[in-house]
Amino acid sequence: MNNFPRPSEIMRHNRPYLFSDSKTEGVYILAKSELSHHLESLTQRNQHQDFEIFARKLCEREICPNLRPQTGPEGGGDGKVDTETYSVAREISDRWFQGLPGSGAERWGFAFSAKEKWAPKVRSDVQGIVDTGRSYDRIIFVTSRAARSKDRLRVEDELVKKFNVPVTIHDRSWIIDRVFEHDHKDLAYEYLKAGQYDESKMVVGPRDFERRKTLDALEERIAKGGQNGGEITQRVVDALEAAQLSRMLERPRIETVGRFDRAIKLAKKHGTRRQKMQAIYEGAWTDLWWFDEIDAINESYEEIEALAFEENHADDISKLSNLYTVLTARVMQGWEGAEELEIEARGERLRVKVQEISADASRPNNALYGKALGHLLELSSASVKTDVESLDAVWNGLSDVIDQAHGLGEFPAEMIDQVIDALQPFAPASDAFDALVLKLAEFMGERAKEGKAGKILFRRGEQRLEAEEPIEAIRWLGKASIYFMKEEYAEEQFETLYCLSVAYRGAGLLWAARATSLSALVRMVILSDGTDGPRPELVPSASLLAMISIQLGRFVDALNVILWLNSLHEVLPLSDEGREGLRNKLLEFDRLLMCQIVNLEADDLRALSTVPDMLEKLRLFSARMALILLLGHAESLEQDGSIPEEGSIDELKELAELAAVQPAARDLPKRLLMYQNREFEASVILLGVKVKFTADASVFGHLLCEAHIGALEGFLATSIETGMLAHASELSVSVEICEDLGEPDIIFDPGSMMLTVKWPVELDVRDVAHHQTLCDHLIDFCARVIDAIAVVNPDKDNGFMSQLVDEFVIQRSISFSNACIGNHRLFGTHASTIAGLQFLSEREYQLKSDAPTVIRGAFLDERRGEDEGFTDPEKIVQSHRGYVVESIINLHLWDRAGWNGIMFAGYGPAYPPMLALIFRDEQTACSIFSGWRDKFGSRDKEDAIRIALLRGVDAQHPSHYRASISKNFDPKKDGLDPSKKFMQASRMLTMTPPNSNNLDTFLSDFEEKQCFILAPAVLGPEGEPQFFTDLSILKRMLYVREAWEVGVHDQDGMALRSDDNILVPDGIENPPCFELMELKKRLREAR
Q: Is 972 contained in some domain?
């Protein structure tokens, strides 16, 4: 005899919370003998009508719920049946969890009788039913009397042969069996008045109270749900949840099994692969652990295996591994034989699949999960043999898995935790097992601590985001996103990434926003790929990605996401408000795409020749009309009715011209980013610096550029106001794919401000195997860009370095930067192309030579000023686009050139005087002036180079003066946005001549000629000057000022230092320089 506890006993002991917490035993007090006697004596109490009602209610639960109540006289009346089924649509009968298959589609007749002579009664009833001519598919007769099986079968066969209609007879034994085995004692009490009901013994537990409410709500929603895609999808989810609740409430087995059968049926008909597998798995799991039946697992194993093997997801294989472990345990305990459960064949197939998953280096989390499953399979084998050495090998293997799990956020470490926790009471003494437990405890403790910290950080980041402080939000959310990179915090990770993407977008960092938004959407897709199916959270996350794609000019990406959103509109169980919100969002995308299309040049329009049909299928009708118009096919819009009879092509053109000057249109890029055999070009603003990225036309080059931009934006996101001072107005980054190159390289040319990234062609960023190489390179790249465009304020150096550590800047910037991986997981391709949407297109609209052009200024005067205004200065620091670097000083060249003096020279009355800048390095000095001449010409007509000479900077030495060189700018004159914060690099040099004779002579000559020559110079070995007049620049403006006149809002104020002893003439009180000096002192002390 087998002494092992039954599965239900084990499950109840280990997980009592999965069972009912109500005390229901003895509520209906009824014995089988009592019910038998009650049925035998019904006629004596004149309860034959009560029995008919009872029998109908019992048949509704056991046979079919769609029975029509009898409203005629007793005994069936003119209808000749006591009840019959009514026709039910398949969509409704699919929702039933009670009754027999087919009862909704067929016509069945029922007769009930309490007469002692049951055989003559059934013959007469069947004769009467057949004589009605209503063509019943089946007749069922229920009697309260006992019928011997031999007699019952004989009568059934007799009636089938006579009337050619299947007849089933249920007698008293069937009634008693169903009442007690399927817990229908409530029917016997309510309709037959059999037994007693003791209300005092019914105590509903708190968990059951909530479960019952939820179950009732689910059943109501299942019964009343409609037939649109969203409601059908929700029904699949609800059916499985209802079955699980029925299981936990310990409802009668017939109810629970019926609900699981319904869930399986709906999942197979309407659900995803994962939902089908989950429903079948849960049904088999329930049969074993709640009803002690192994048959369902054994019978459904191959079906679950086939579904699990369709895709190499370790999580699916883990469920199959659970079933296999159960089967092997049953064999070990002697319940069944190994051959009966096909242990060897099933185990071999499972091991092969686990090895395949473990070897897939492109999915590191999934592969490590596979390794863990492999060790757990070995554990089953070692347990059978009770081999300590084999067990130690398993413990050591699992320890290695934990070591490798560091940094793999999607690895489900809690799975190993649960297994080890269950095994601890039974595992033999072993140092390897002890080491595993200790390592696991430390690992899980660290994850739990990080999860708690992540929640605190997220709350703070969310508050900053609500306060419209995106840069501050990025500080908190970026760090939280790293803490949440664990499977058990998948929900929190999605929410954090979504908010982080919103924050990046708010800070003007669209590429970082795109990469993070893709990661958020991938996370939600993974969460949706479970039993619950697509989740409503997909809508806002997909909408965000679509908006960012439009803002970046990623037209095809936007269409892909909008295709998704259209599908979600059909399948998600959205509320009326949610559905209306999604429709409005799609309408907004339509209008934005129209605004973008009307501003495109001919080459972009030509590339979109197959897109109009796509736009129509995606319901982007405004964008379609604008595109067809600009491609020169407006007549087709009249032909298909897009332009109504009362409208005209001219009116459509006016609408396009109006769209072209909308504020939204002015903010959208005028060139699309597409993988259409065109070079990659994109510019971003970081710290006010325009960084321009270029790459060749290959998809590889495009993807590399995208990764670099996303990482750089993430790295510099929070560098504003932290001691990072940008000095360059522009930087060019060229990404080149190189053959015969072993490892990535970065080359910087300070003269042209060009940074070149050389990338080996063998290291394909689409291959996860090269992910770490890419991450290491991106860190180096970000550091090199910072070195090229900015300097760290020495007073804040520690603050900047601590920011890198405290905010997880490096992890934040590279963890989500390789967007092509997320794109592949969502859309099945690393790079979305128009060709990928070709299935939506039926014809091509070639760009015609006479296609109309949009006059983009047609309505500009009318709209001018509508959206003008000043940005809140407090909000400037919350966006990189709120900064502008205007500089003519290339710090790299000036540092190398070594400016160390000024020299004046005159060439006679016919020529202007010369102001020469003396440098140590001749070649670099010439490069500086060569660059100026390339930019401003040989004559600085716009006075871009500001030369200021501040006299009186040292009261003790009146002849000393300070020269300042910077870009001369006037916001109004240069059309600069006064709401932005401007920065520039400048160079100052204090000259200490013993007298002012040379300066006075030069200024007198300049005053006479009203111009001077600016040129580079160096001093020879003997101190003789060498002028490079071939690089000279003629200037007409020179700013000679007394230092005491320079105030707070003066551009030349940067040339003064807080410790200057400025010469102030007698009689001047509170000169402007005093306020400036005081401000500089306060700023220095604040640092």
A: yes
Tell me: the pLDDT tens digits for 558-603? 999 999 898 888 777 777 888 889 999 999 999 999 999 998 888 8
Res 709 pLDDT > 60: yes
**Hey, what amino acid is at 446?**
E
Q: Report how far residue 699's alpha carbon sits from residue 655's, in angstroms, rounded to the nearest whole number.
A: 36
235 and 106, same structural domain?
A: no
CATH of the domain at 64: 3.40.1350.10
Burial of 1022 by CB count in 10 Å (0-12 exposed, 13-18 middle, 19+ buried)? exposed
Q: How confident is the model at residue 863 (pLDDT cuts 50, 70, 90)?
A: very low
Same domain, 34 and 166: yes
Tokens for 354, please give them.
């686990």
Cα-based angle 500, 502, 505 (whole degrees, multiple of 5): 110
Which of these, 501, 459, 460, 457, lies nearest to 482 by C-alpha position? Answer: 457
Do both 1028 and 1059 map to the same domain?
A: yes
Angle formed at CA 607 by CA 604 and CA 612, multiple of 5 degrees? 105
806: in domain: yes
Contact 977, 996 (CB under 8 A): no
Q: Are residues 792 and 716 in the same domain?
A: yes
Tokens of 977: 């946005």
Total structural domains within the chain: 6
Other C-beta atoms lying within 10 Å of the C-beta of residue 321: 21
Quick one: which of 460, 511, 521, 452 has its CA closest to 807?
Answer: 460
Count CB atoms within 10 A of the CB of residue 907: 12
| Boundary residue ending a domain (812, 827, 842) | 827
Average per-residue pLDDT for the chain: 84
Among 7-16, 166-175, 346-355, the least confident range: 7-16
Could you tell me if residue 544 is inside a domain?
yes
Cα 74 from Cα 67, distance rounded (Å): 17
What is the 8-class DSSP label of residue 1061?
B
pLDDT band for position 94 (cuts 50, 70, 90) = low
In this predicted structure, what is the pLDDT of residue 541? Answer: 93
pTM for the model stands at 0.72
Q: Rounded to 5 degrees, what are φ and ψ at 865?
A: 95, -10
| Per-residue pLDDT tens over the stretch 868-897 | 333 444 444 567 777 888 889 999 999 999
Residues 746 and 670 in one domain: no
Does residue 948 fall inside a structural domain? yes
Tokens encoding 908:
């006679």
Domain membership of residue 462 as a residue range = 447-522
Name the DSSP letter for residue 1037: -
Mean pLDDT of 1026-1036: 95
In terms of domains, do 667 and 684 share one? no
Examine the fold and report which residue of 522, 550, 576 is the final residue of a domain before the chain moves on.
Answer: 522
